[in-house]
Amino acid sequence: MTWSPANPESVFTYGAPQLKFGPGAADEVGHDLLALGARRVLLVTDAGVLATGWPDRVAEGIRGFGIEVVVHDSAHVEPTDASLDAAVERARSDGPFDGFVAVGGGSAIDTAKAVDLLLSDGGDLMDYVNVPVGAGRAPTRRLAPLVAVPTTTGTGAESTTICVLDVLSLKVKTGISHVRLRPSLAVVDPRLTASQPAGVTASAGMDILCHALESWTARPYSSYERKQPGERVPYCGRNPISDMWSERSMSLLAKAFRAAVRDGSDEAARGDMALAATFAGLGFGNAGVHVPHANAYPIAGRVRGFHPDGYPRDEPMVPHGMAVALTAPEAFRWTFESDPERHLAAARLLDPAHGDRWDSDPRDVLPGVLADLMRDIGMPNGLAAVGYDEHDVADLVDGSLKQQRLLATSPREVGPDDLSGILARSMHLWD
Amino acid sequence: MTWSPANPESVFTYGAPQLKFGPGAADEVGHDLLALGARRVLLVTDAGVLATGWPDRVAEGIRGFGIEVVVHDSAHVEPTDASLDAAVERARSDGPFDGFVAVGGGSAIDTAKAVDLLLSDGGDLMDYVNVPVGAGRAPTRRLAPLVAVPTTTGTGAESTTICVLDVLSLKVKTGISHVRLRPSLAVVDPRLTASQPAGVTASAGMDILCHALESWTARPYSSYERKQPGERVPYCGRNPISDMWSERSMSLLAKAFRAAVRDGSDEAARGDMALAATFAGLGFGNAGVHVPHANAYPIAGRVRGFHPDGYPRDEPMVPHGMAVALTAPEAFRWTFESDPERHLAAARLLDPAHGDRWDSDPRDVLPGVLADLMRDIGMPNGLAAVGYDEHDVADLVDGSLKQQRLLATSPREVGPDDLSGILARSMHLWD
User: Does residue A291 lie within any of the structural domains?
Assistant: First the structure.
């Protein structure tokens, strides 16, 4: 595949929050808030995370630095316009605040971004939601500092500039996107993930892995036509900086992923997984993800009866990382021809012992490495194992095609027939 | 060398500005300033850089986005308290500004930091200068956004939290240090370095190389006693993130350094050097530098009659990168025993063709790689070649010992006798 832009892009961008990493880091948030100028802060979490005790422990630590803290378990897992409106209303009635802290996964962090935005800049949620759903208004004031303390090793929410939400009345997933939404500081403390069940570690880890691998194989930034400054997007295609983070993350996953799933008390493996997740957040996410992530939206959204281990049993669900992983082997078989050497290099990084098996077609090497890993860590054996069959393919393709923002970084032009083939071949991944 | 902390540090930190990199990036600064909320900005540069035409070109580009721009060539090369006071006074009389842009080397960028600080937070320069020289006051307000556009490939000023200055009446080099001094955005456009003379490329490149190599060999963060949050410093010892940037930077230097010095119009080499310098700024500088940088202060400060090619002839000088390089081979021979494998790995990264020569003592390998490179790019052959002799060693040792902030990240405990030996053996580096 050769892209031939008439006027090739020469510029790439890189954005990330400041970082404090390591066991104990979550005990120091108060110090960091003081340095950021905060004296009265709102800590946003969700009910499930609140029950672990960590949000209250972080809040106590902050109070030890003389800062007033209010704790709201106002984040809804998968935020909606209704949940965000409620969180904002609750925050307004307890405000004002000059700083925000999020303790939780992507849902808590994204809720805190929306609360910070609306309390700092005023107005209503839909003023800021991306067009055409909302008015796409850019904030005119600087937001108060936000410190993100992730409790799951997979989210990149601590470093992105986006708040993802479902607009219930329209049944559409959209977002608010602005550079000012990026948290000021990410505090990654591996202790907060120690109670994560094996199933969650496996799914979240596949999300990290696919962030790295999709960024590593993404369309190069220099293969696009030159953008006007206002056209630049946070995901600019692979570039020398995203490549560096992707490579290092794949090496960490090769070392630690199976061990962290097998034994959640393996501190070294937990630390390496937290570092790999941080690298996802800080680094390679600037390139962009493509086909597996695009497919993940309808795979998660159209679930009927699947209940994965390690997650709440009340609603059927395909966790995000699992939904991403299920079509990854076939997606990377399809992208192989865009850059064979890069796909083989990824296989070697992810599986140094077996990643250069040449007993088969080279395009089978990376899918083989992925399928071996997924089987070992207990991922379902393809889309059939989470309840889909060939009659669902057309619907899933429709859903994937709605993710044009993601498909734009695919290393091959991708149409409905390509997606249909990838999805159909993903029903069963191994014998 | 084994460090045995009773309560080992478990936390490391990482900070960096946002980045826009590539030819053409400097034409878009106005767009970035709008996104940061600025409408009337001060562009700070120095007279030498102003003469290249780039500051006016950047200012014109910013005006194209409807932003008012005032240009001050108020930066003094090596800022002093007097030069910063003058720059602040001039800025106050032309203000107010809601954003700042620096176009130049470390001097222009550091001057812009001081101007931003004093215009945003009020007071006098000495209120903020580090104790004991100044009052060490922390800013209570957030600074206006600062966009740094470096014009030399060696400075890390675009990403540090420090403004370095000479206090003339006390004849002391000190600084202002606070996390809020870090620029919001670094815009690295390799076109702005295209006119850099070969001698400047060589010295600045040695500064990059030593940033990478000193960070790579620095004392590990986990070898220190656990710090209280208020004791944390921006340079926390080597860690997984600084290692990654250091490795990648050394690989880029191996590929591009000699070519960029030999032919300044080699665009690929210029681009790789700009990227290596950016990696210095974004990444490995978070670990810290040690003996070569500590020695560089007195080597530059006590110069008598040396006039390097490519620099202004009006005053004698040893450029910073050259001053750093002159004791690097002997410093790394002395640090070898702290981690032999790491020193040998650095030699291989910096010189893949010859970095694993084993015809001599392993501790000679890295010094040999450095001396070969320095000879090839026209560095002086040791301290004698810039005017020092054995009678100067005691004075130079005194000067190095004043840099305890830097020596704290040395991988071996370093005393006067160690420095004396390193300096004495650095008089002549090759035959």
Answer: yes
What pLDDT shows up at residue B355? 65
Give me the residue from A11, A28, A275 closest to B229, CB to CB.
A28
Kindly state whether residues A290 and A414 are assigned to the same domain. Answer: yes
Let me know: does A198 contact A125? Beta carbons within 8 Å. Answer: no
Residue A5 covered by a domain: no
- The reply to whether B20 touches chain A by the CB within 8 Å rule is yes
The answer to whether A171 contacts chain B (CB < 8 Å) is no
For chain B, the average pLDDT equals 92
Containing A20, the helix (H) or strand (E) segment is strand A18-21
Residue A403's pLDDT is 87
Residue in B21, B230, B245 nearest the CB of A12: B21
Chain B residues in contact with A11 (beta carbon < 8 A)? 20-25, 28
Q: Check whether residue B64 and residue B211 sit in a common domain.
A: no
Closest-CA residue of B relative to A61 is B229
Task: Find out whether B44 and B112 touch, Cβ atoms under 8 Å.
Answer: yes
Of the candidates B341, B237, B283, B247, the one whose C-alpha atom is nearest the C-alpha of residue B10 is B237
**pLDDT tens by residue, B198-231:** 998 999 999 999 999 999 999 999 999 999 888 8
CATH code for position A68: 3.40.50.1970
Domain membership of residue B413 as a residue range: 198-424
Give how many domains chain A has, as a whole number: 2
Last residue of a domain, one of B155, B188, B221: B188
Measured between CB atoms, does B226 come within 8 Å of chain A? yes
